[in-house]
Design goal:
Helix content: 40-55%
Number of domains: 2
CATH architecture of the largest domain: 2-Layer Sandwich
CATH class of the largest domain: Alpha Beta
Distance between the termini: 31 Å
Bound molecules: 5'-O-[(R)-(carboxyoxy)(hydroxy)phosphoryl]adenosine, zinc ion
Strand order of the largest sheet: 3-2-1-4-5
Number of helices: 9
CATH topology of the largest domain: Nucleotidyltransferase, domain 5
Strand content: 15-25%
Largest sheet: 5 strands, mixed
Structural class: alpha/beta
Length: 338
């Protein structure tokens, strides 16, 4: 069989990324993270779009160079069609369309959330692919879902957040603690040296396999406001313990529902996906639960958890093998369900 080379392009939020993949194996994966949003405490859509425009050509160039192949070898161009910020998606979509026309190769649209989930199929030493059907805990900055995956492109949402996503829970509480955006990785870093049982926060009561995180955020905000009345340096003096306790609570909420999903469905192949699956505590808890509960756990390699184009390229490869191509008239889609 001939080798299949796919270029993946990802520009849904604040990372400009391009990746070249050969038969499911990553040859290159370049990610340019936009630092401009840090000082604003969140992603500014207008600035994100502008930064994608500046980054897209150098990032795609670097991905092709690093892959060691000539662009004439590419069999198809895969790109993120949605969900995401419209101004950001438009940059990748327009670029992918132009490149597919100029190289005269098929264009493949990819749903960003499918990309996160199917990142579990990127070939890597020591990794085994999930077997169908499997459950995925999808945890990112915009989504928190438990998804049943029956086949590559047959996915069903069994439960999801009714308010904030898990990533927002990390980022918004980090903001309360005075940390810069995105706060998730910082909470992870400080939590390593803190006591997870120092402070108790209430876990939400939500029916079925759904999640809620906005109550936790308010709970933390009021707790800190109260403490600061007595001691203005409370956060500074307790930062490590606060981070560890907040992280512990968020991970507990996620793991409780995932265990319930396994109990209800009887499916024991369980995967993780999305930026929050970079979190060291949830990765550790996932491995421990695999042993205790006799699951088969699938955790994507660290660099394929937060937004990246390798996960878009792998979906491109899977679609290419089934000849699922897009028309050149395809447009970006900000709201795009699984
Ligand atoms: O998947 P992703 O890169 O972008 C979206 O599609 O939303 O996820 C970004 C989210 C942010 O909320 C970020 O704070 C969170 O993932 N995140 C983490 C960690 N690394 C990234 N949260 C907790 N611990 C981490 N180590
Ligand atoms: Zn994402």
């Amino acid at each position: 069989m001939n080798d299949i080379f796919i270029l993946g392009i990802e520009t849904s939020c604040d990372d400009t990324s391009a990746s070249v993949i050969k038969n499911g194996k990553i040859l290159s994966n370049v990610v340019a993270t936009q630092k401009v949003h840090e000082e604003y405490g969140g992603v500014v859509p207008e600035l994100a779009s502008r930064a994608h425009q500046q980054n897209i050509i150098p990032v795609v160039d670097a991905a092709i160079k690093n892959s060691g192949i000539n662009k004439s070898k590419l069999n198809a161009i895969a790109f993120t069609r949605g969900p995401g910020l419209m101004g950001s998606l438009l940059v990748g979509t327009s670029f992918a369309k132009s490149l597919s026309m100029s190289l005269d190769v098929p264009l493949i649209e990819v749903n960003h959330m499918q990309g996160h989930i199917l990142a579990n199929f990127i070939e890597d030493d020591g990794m085994t692919n999930p077997e169908f059907p499997f459950l995925t805990l999808v945890i990112s900055g915009g989504h928190t879902q438990i998804v049943k995956v029956t086949n590559y492109f047959d996915m069903e949402v069994l439960g999801e957040t009714i308010d904030d996503a898990a990533g927002e829970a990390f980022d918004k509480t980090a903001k309360i603690l005075g940390l810069t955006y995105p706060g998730g990785p910082l909470i992870d870093k400080f939590a390593k040296e803190g006591n997870p049982n120092a402070f108790k926060f209430t876990k939400p009561r939500v029916a079925n396999l759904n999640f809620s995180f906005s109550g936790l955020k308010t709970n933390i905000l009021y707790f800190i406001q109260k403490q600061e009345k007595e001691n203005p340096d409370f956060v500074k003096e307790n930062l490590l313990d606060l981070c560890a306790s907040i992280q512990f609570t968020i991970v507990e909420i996620l793991m409780d529902k995932l265990k319930l999903a396994v109990q209800e469905t009887g499916i024991t192949e369980v995967a993780m996906a999305g930026g929050v699956s970079a979190n060291s505590e949830i990765r550790e808890r996932f491995r421990k639960t695999e042993k205790d509960w006799k699951w088969k756990a699938h955790i994507p390699k660290f660099e394929f958890t937060t937004d990246n184009a390798a996960m878009i390229a792998i979906v491109g490869y899977l679609k290419y093998k089934q000849s699922i191509f897009s028309d050149i008239s395809v447009t970006a889609k900000a709201r795009y369900s699984l």
